[in-house]
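My current task is to audit a protein record that another person submitted. Thanks in advance; the entry in question is below:
***
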Amino acid sequence: MNGQRQARVLCAGVLICALCLILGPTAGLSNSVVPYDPGGTDDVPSAAARIINLASSPVPGGCRYSFDIEVFPTCWKPVYYLKIDKLAESMLDPASWPTGWVAEQIPPTFRSAGSLVFSTSGDPVLPGEILQGFAVVSYSGEATLRWYPADDEGILMGKITRLELGCATATESSTWGSIKAVYR
């Protein structure tokens, strides 16, 4: 009887160790870093940079999203690349970028939905600076993407951040007063 009890205790211990290895040391805790930030939070999205001044405007067949990049003063290197990975069925094209930067579409493969890369060889965003003038066009009302800043060798700086975008639309007046004003 004692042998069966020891076998059960050993089995339970092995099971607990296996669960710890599978779930990791932060099991049960919220960890927005792995695999990427879920977006829509007030957390700082990267140790290197963040997207700021995000604005949307409808365009024929989709939506234009304009934004700026802020590189934190504590960032250890300038940012030379801004890579945007398309998720799901998001169709995304570059619309504008700052002087000295270029935009390149990386075609989809069987492993990815494709990417959009903004880059520069001589005009990086230095730590503590904000670079204005980026914009993309999505051919749907919503877009889901992941983005990250990279150094001069294209190596990730900070963490990959998920961003869910929705186009702002005008709403029609629906109050009784506004409806009466139409017919005056």
